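Async update (no meeting this week)

Hi team, since we skipped the sync, here's where things stand on the single-chain job. The sequence we agreed to prioritize is pasted below, unchanged from the tracker. I ran it this morning and attached the output directly underneath so nobody has to dig for it. Comments welcome in thread, and please keep replies under the output.
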Amino acid sequence: MENLKTLLYSHGINLKKAYGQNFLTDQTLLEDIVNQSGIDKDTTVLEIGPGAGALTGELCKKAKKVIAYEIDQRLKPLLAQTVGGYSNLEIVFKDVMKEKLNVLEQKLGDNYLLVANLPYYITTPIVMNFLENSKKLNSLVIMVQKEVAQRFCAPPKTTDYGAITVAINLRGKAKIIKQVPREMFTPPPNVDSAVVKIDIDRKKLESVDLDKVREVVKIAFSSRRKMLVNNLMNAYKLARTDAETLLINSNVSLTARAEELTSEQYITLSENLKK
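Output:
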């Protein structure tokens, strides 16, 4: 790609902090991200935030179809110049969060892949929207702040392990596939980043009351420094003996705190609460 700063200047574009606009242009890195994403000639890709189109072009080289959502209308002429020649690309200049997911997925078809270089302020809403509501998404490959990536992939009994980690683990498995230092962006952000791949396994949710599990996780992490037994007593007005019996039947330590439970234990706990 032509020098990004030159391209932006030629189109009179100043990057907006409000959109979290930090663009990648390193060719080797972009190719590596696409290769590790598992994209092939049968894959349909939903890209959120194509920016200047550097990653978009690499996606188009590998994928069957790329549908890219860009919120910044000013980038129309720039994207027309950088990736306008790809016949398998459709760019939609809208906020993807305002699209009805079921309508969007009719266009995307079965088993599509989501790719995004996400600004911090919309990372969790986008990830949770697609994880909780998608019927056809196969996996997410997302560029996020390094600290956020660590939370997404954290094991139990660590400080990074939280409600978002459990939510991801309920639906699949997350792993960091690439570390990306801040110097590789234009303009450089104030933090380092990482690429996370979340593979979805819908069998994990078969016959699971997801609303109940979500409720229990929220209660558990509402006061994460407190022991889980106390949070359950307060939330459900349980006697201590009843709350302790509930934990014992769920194979959970009586002194456990929220970050010590696996997603499977949260499922068991929620099922026993219903009983």
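Quick observations from my side:
The radius of gyration is 21 Å.
Strands lie at 23-24, 44-48, 65-69, 89-92, 112-117, 137-145, 172-180, 185-186, 193-200.
Reply here if anything looks off.
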